[in-house]
Amino acid sequence: MTLPIIALDFESTDDLYNFLDKFPKDEHLFVKIGMEMFYQAGPSIVKEISRRGHDIFLDLKLHDIPNTVKRAMHIIGELGNIKLTTIHAAGGSKMITAAKEGLLSTPGGQDTKLLAITQLTSTSQQQLNSEQNISGTIMDSVVNYAQLAKQNGADGVVSSGLEVTAIKQATDNDFLCVTPGIRLIAEPDQDQTRVVTPEIARANGSDYIVVGRPITRATDVVAAYQKIKTNWGQN
Ligand SMILES: O=c1ccn([C@@H]2O[C@H](COP(=O)(O)O)[C@@H](O)[C@H]2O)c(=O)[nH]1
């Protein structure tokens, strides 16, 4: 079983390092750096967390013209030691292909897995139909984006745990399914609408779960992490 990925979304780098310092020095973590920290601290945060020995998911959700995304992915690859990184599948086939080319254009990006965001776990059925003007179900849209991502060289997708079984059936079992929107009770919470528990994610076949506030905002963050880890199937 993989480690739960902790989403390090904090107001400041001091808060982030205070959080990490609560864990035993030898505890190896898999952490996600998103826009909030990267826009504050830049590449130095990636280097420091890597120096501390943790695995890194750099979640910048790129969505731009193919050439721009290719160049940006080259730079992400050059950071080195990034295990997972993201684009939006809605950027289309050429953008997905360009993103992978960008990673492969530098030695540091060879082992970085490219994930495509399908429909954000905050998106509801109603928003899909009325705001995005996409008819059909969330499931259809997610599976469509997963197939597009696979056909154009992505290594996996980000979706809710509710769609993982269908994605694996429509692509293949090795196509990575990364699941944020994790809560201990499977009910919409905060800004997340398509929510599952670690147990449901595991049963549906998720390869990784991503957990932020249920750990980072807990009173005892280490205990909260251990509980999620146990429920996910990692003792
Ligand atoms: O569809 C998506 C894609 C990415 N995320 C990210 O995961 C974490 C979830 O944080 P919580 O505090 O556990 O809600 C956050 O960094 C998002 O940017 C997502 O939630 N859904």
UniProtKB/TrEMBL annotation:
> What UniProt keywords are attached to this protein's entry?
Decarboxylase, Lyase, Pyrimidine biosynthesis
| Residues annotated as domain Orotidine 5'-phosphate decarboxylase | 3-228
> Which InterPro entries does the entry mention?
Aldolase_TIM (IPR013785), OMPdecase (IPR014732), OMPdecase_AS (IPR018089), OMPdecase_bac (IPR047596), OMPdeCOase_dom (IPR001754), RibuloseP-bd_barrel (IPR011060)
Query: Which positions does UniProt annotate for substrate binding?
Result: 9, 32, 59-68, 121, 183, 192, 212-213
Name its pathway. Pyrimidine metabolism; UMP biosynthesis via de novo pathway; UMP from orotate: step 2/2
Catalytic reaction equation(s): orotidine 5'-phosphate + H(+) = UMP + CO2
Where does the record place the catalytic residues?
K61 (proton donor)
Source species, domain of life: Bacteria
Q: Which GO terms describe its molecular function?
A: orotidine-5'-phosphate decarboxylase activity
Q: What is its EC number?
A: 4.1.1.23
Q: Which family does it belong to?
A: Belongs to the OMP decarboxylase family. Type 1 subfamily.
Subunit details for this protein? Answer: Homodimer.
Q: What does this protein do?
A: Catalyzes the decarboxylation of orotidine 5'-monophosphate (OMP) to uridine 5'-monophosphate (UMP).
Record's protein name = Orotidine 5'-phosphate decarboxylase
- State the organism named in the record: Agrilactobacillus yilanensis
